[in-house]
Every structure is written in structure tokens, then in C-alpha cells.
Design brief:
By secondary structure, the protein is mainly α. It has one domain. 64% of the residues lie in helices and 0% in strands. The two termini are 16 Å apart.
């Protein structure tokens, strides 16, 4: 699925196809780590346009999560989860070098564990910190 809110042209469109997913914490984490890997590769290649596309996709994810978090028709628990995910995207956009450590600390907080409880009931691997560690795109 293409990202309709962004204009990503070849050769970048294939790299970003289906990258933006955040229906769960696990998906959001995978998305951000995939973006980080792409961004790192683009930086190594001195590809500023590729780096900018990574940032644009993350910013779009943040905006979409924020919109869902404010939608009163969405389940209140899901709204809180989307607010959390929007924060993840924000931290990655502002300070990508500390994101992985920040996320590990954040996931250890009581506040986060309360947000995770509804997901754990529907996904038995949601509480496993290694379940979404695959950082390869």
C-alpha cells in the first residue's frame, strides 16, 4: 500500500511501501526501527532525500496517531495507546540517537505497562521485549 499523504517517487517508493504500520505497539516499534535502518543507510550513502523521506514518513505516523488519539469515537484505551505511539514517533524524530534506549526505559514504566495490558490480552507476544527486535528492513 502506498502512502497517499506523501509523494515518494522512484527509487524510494519501493523502500517505503507498506512501512507505516502502528495498529499495535509491536507494529509501531517495527516501523520506527525499519525507518531508522533506512535512514542510517541513506545517511551512509549521503542521500539527503532518502533521509528526508524517512523523517516525512515518521512525521506522518505521528500526525495520524495524534488524530486517532483525539477522536472521541475511538475506544478510550485505543486513544491512549495512539497517544503513546505518537510520542514514540516524536522522540525518534527529535532525538533518533537515543530512541532505542529511551524506548527500553519507557517500556519498563508502570504507566506503559498499564497501556500494554489490553494488547497483551489480544496478543500473547505483546509483552515480550524481544518479539519486535528484528531491525532488518
Amino acid at each position: 500500500m502506498a502512502i497517499p499523504d506523501l509523494r515518494i517517487e522512484p527509487p524510494y517508493c519501493d523502500a517505503f511501501r507498506d512501512i507505516l504500520a502502528f495498529s499495535s505497539f509491536e507494529e509501531a516499534e517495527k516501523t520506527i526501527f525499519r525507518l531508522e535502518n533506512l535512514c542510517r543507510n541513506y545517511r551512509l550513502a549521503s542521500d539527503k532525500k532518502g533521509v528526508e523521506h524517512c523523517r516525512q514518513v515518521a512525521a506522518l505516523g505521528r500526525r495520524r496517531a495524534e488524530i486517532i488519539s483525539r477522536n472521541r469515537r475511538v475506544n478510550p484505551v485505543k486513544r491512549l495507546q495512539k497517544k503513546e505511539i505518537a510520542q514514540w514517533f516524536r522522540v525518534w524524530l527529535e532525538t533518533p540517537s537515543i530512541f532505542e534506549d529511551w524506548l527500553a526505559i519507557r517500556k519498563g514504566t508502570e504507566e506503559f505497562r498499564k497501556l500494554l495490558e489490553p494488547e497483551m490480552n489480544s496478543n500473547p507476544h505483546a509483552g515480550d521485549p524481544n518479539a519486535s527486535r528484528n531491525k532488518n528492513p
